[in-house]
Amino acid sequence: MGELSHLDEAGRARMVDIGPKATTDRRAVARAVVRMSEDTAAAVRRGDAPKGDVLGTARIAGIQGAKRTAELIPLCHPLQLSFVDVRLEVGDDRVEIETEARTSAQTGVEMEALTAASVAALTVYDMVKGLERGVEITEVTLVEKSGGRHHWRRAQA
């Protein structure tokens, strides 16, 4: 596994020094799933949930979340994002969310993609909780990351 880069010699949390690292194009994709009843999913699809446009609101919330990641996650470096996308698809009993974040930086952008997916999922939850209390956020996961010296993609199940 290697040593933990976010700990100093005394075992205290610290921000990693990325100064010596090369600036490269970075990209990350994450996903989340919000499970719900078919009736709730149908309301989301129709656009007539009590709080309004669930998908549009979740898309903007996810983008905003990605942009604020360094404020939310204490040891994340602030990044100048060049692109954030939040795609939502309504299934029979779920909303599937896929996010993408890109930058040119000395560190990866996976936390921004994961934050975007999480915030978008939380927003879907908030927007439909008046229709159903049993909504569940699942599968918040990193799908792919590239840049620097590495490219990684989650194996498909």
CATH topology term: Alpha-Beta Plaits
Structural class by sheet pairing and helices: alpha+beta
Q: CATH superfamily, please? A: Molybdopterin cofactor biosynthesis C (MoaC) domain
Estimate the global geometry from the Cα principal axes.
Answer: elongated
Biggest sheet descriptor: 5 strands, antiparallel
Low-confidence stretches: none
The number of helical runs is 4
The ordered string of helix (H) and strand (E) elements is: EHHHEEHEE
Query: Which CATH class?
Result: Alpha Beta
Distance between the termini: 24 Å
Q: Can you give the helix content as a percent range?
A: 25-40%
Mean pLDDT: 91
For the record, the count of structural domains works out to 1
Instruction: Please state the CA-atom Rg, rounded to the nearest Å.
Output: 17 Å
By DSSP, the count of extended strands is: 5
CATH architecture: 2-Layer Sandwich
- What portion of the residues fall into strands of 2 or more residues? 25-35%
Major sheet: order of its strands? Answer: 2-3-1-4-5
Model description:
The chain has 157 residues and is α+β, with helices and mostly antiparallel strands. The chain has one domain (24-147): Alpha-Beta Plaits. The chain is 29% helix and 32% strand. The chain has a 5-stranded antiparallel beta sheet. Strand 4 and strand 5 (150-153) form a beta hairpin. Helix 2 (54-67) runs antiparallel to helix 4 (110-128). The longest helix has 19 residues, at 110-128. The radius of gyration is 17 Å and the shape is elongated. The two termini are 24 Å apart. The model has no long low-confidence stretch (mean pLDDT 91).
